[in-house]
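Friendly challenge for the regulars: who can give me the structure tokens for this chain first? No prize, just bragging rights.
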Amino acid sequence: MAARGRSPGRRGVGYYRVHFLESIRPDGVVCLECGKLRKALGSHVRLLHHMTLDDYREQWGFNRQTAFVAADTAARFRRLALKRKLGAYGSAENLAKARAARRPKARVQRPEARLRHSEAKKRLYAGGWQPRRYRKVEDSKLRRLAKKSVDTKTVARKAGLSIDQARNRLQALGLLPPRQRRRPADRQRILDLRTEGLWPLEIARRLRIQPQLVRKILWQLRRQKVIVPTPSRPRPIKRRKMSDERFLRARRRSGAPAQIAERLAVSRAYVIYKTWYLRRRGLLAPVPQPRINR
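First reply, four minutes later:
Bragging rights claimed.
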């Protein structure tokens, strides 16, 4: 589709080839191959110049996310998509991006991020800047800094290294104790507890590990075609809704808070809170106070 604005042609396309960011104008997009002004460059580049938009971006230095559509055309497409509610057929992330794109923003004021970052890095390298992973620090300097300060963050800041680099160098020099490796989780033990009907939170409490690690190991076992049974008991919830009669019946069977929590699939803290609440209401006998012999 041709744009209504003035096309620069082959004579005026040289300016846009040097300042390629200005080729995306509010009234259209200037093709850097032939100098024609179009509302969009998709079919024009493909049919006339026999190249894809990815090839066009790579040849002229655009980012991969650059859209070659005029601002008014993109706004019209956006209004049409919102009117037809096309965002309901996609993910919530895409819908949020579409709504954020409704904010008016001139394309001339949107310089390419990759080009902006590369120019900033070039200026830093020209001034003698060097990434932390390439910086070289002598062992004697690290030893002097370690004698003055035991804190790893202070040593890293004074030496110009990252905290992980400073920690690894100090451990290699014997100035810091080696990092203790975590004890690997017993997969067979986790599978046995799962077979007994326990949930990941209950397995983590028994083995004293993180619940995320238990869920990850169970997922890996399923990927390895291992049969992981589903618990038939209710999922443990911190504060599950239940009647006072049910809680009192479970408490009569066993007075230990841990056993009551395991039977009712709640946390031990909730059992203690519920006991205090029922005693306050008078449904449970108060705790007998010890006698003091005078």
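Residues 187-223 form one domain. Residues 198 and 231 are 6 Å apart (CA to CA). Your move, everyone else.
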